[in-house]
Amino acid sequence: MSKTADQKKSLDFYKILGVPKGAGDGQIKSAYRKLAIQYHPDKTAGDAELEERFKEISAAYAVLSDPQKRRQYDMLGDAAVDIEAVDMEQMTFGTTLVAALFSKLGAPIPTAIPQRTLDLAASFEARQQGEKITWNSTTEGKISTHGVKFYFGEVTEEEAKRGVRIYVHSSISSKFKLLSFDAQGKLLSQEESMQEVLGRSGTFACIYMCAFKSLHVDPPTSRFKLVHDEEEAPPVFRRLETLTASRYSPLRPGEVLFAVQGDNFFREVKYTIHFNVCDLEAKEEILSAEEKLSQKQRELHQLEQEYWEAKSKYEKILARVEEETTTVEQSLLLREALYAKMAGDVQRERAVEQAIARAEEERAKEKAKKEAKR
């Protein structure tokens, strides 16, 4: 059974997997496995409708099991599923203006790293055009909207033992990416600029390359209104969802290459970049804090399961209370009608019947409203 474009837009990935909006990774994976076994093509004997169902299940899992795709889906709905990174250099003035407006609202507009940046990094030109890193120094930078500035240097044995930090800050809230490359110029990772809320105004991106195995966690979700806000779980359940081992640690001696890539829509990008060698005095405290966060991540996963189980029980009890309320009120009205009939009070009997009809009409309207919200 084929789906039209309108039908495709109405898909709810959470409902497809049968999980609540705030479901954790474990719930999503467990639900997917059960459904995938049930609807696998090997068991559906060529049934086109069931095969389509299997595709929907696979698509839902592909999105909800990926933190970045899931955040985009929660913000923009299934319209975000097919969003690909935008090539800023190929955008017209009109499309740039629209993207800028959405970005200002907080909607995630993924942008691609220009191919010329990747080509420069892979060639010797990045070092020729770039600026040599001096550790424990700060320098100002200015690039065009989609321009790039490279920074290269060496990490000694001593610096590798202590770790380094690369911190880029824009006081005028420019949008940019902080890129990291290996010694051959291959892209290792990218950090998107975000709003700074700790001590400075503007935007920033930061990379810690520690001598020890450290952890990484994504910043809180964008302020852009979530599509599923009305059923969203308490935010704390998502806060440690991306807590994972840092891809930058442990740091090794050798050549390093970074770049600041412009990501503005119209204005040039202005920033300050800090190259710091770290102090290991806080190492043990950091390791202790991150171990506690890892433990808290496990505890939150368990708490989230308990939360949804309790919420489900509460909703069932609430539905039963509503049902019992309806039954009691109907019984009382029916009793009044019978007493009126026994006394020969036709006017009161009709009034009670009308009250019963109005109550049923109101319940039908409420039911329709609830169905419309689903």
UniProtKB/TrEMBL annotation:
Domain J: 12-77
Keywords: Coiled coil
PROSITE patterns in UniProt: DNAJ_1, DNAJ_2
Keyword Coiled coil: yes
InterPro entries in the cross-refs: DnaJ_domain, DnaJ_domain_CS, J_dom_sf, Plant_DnaJ_domain
CDD domains associated with the record: DnaJ
Keyword Ribonucleoprotein among UniProt keywords: no
Coiled-coil intervals: 279-320
Protein name: J domain-containing protein
Organism: Guillardia theta (Cryptophyte)
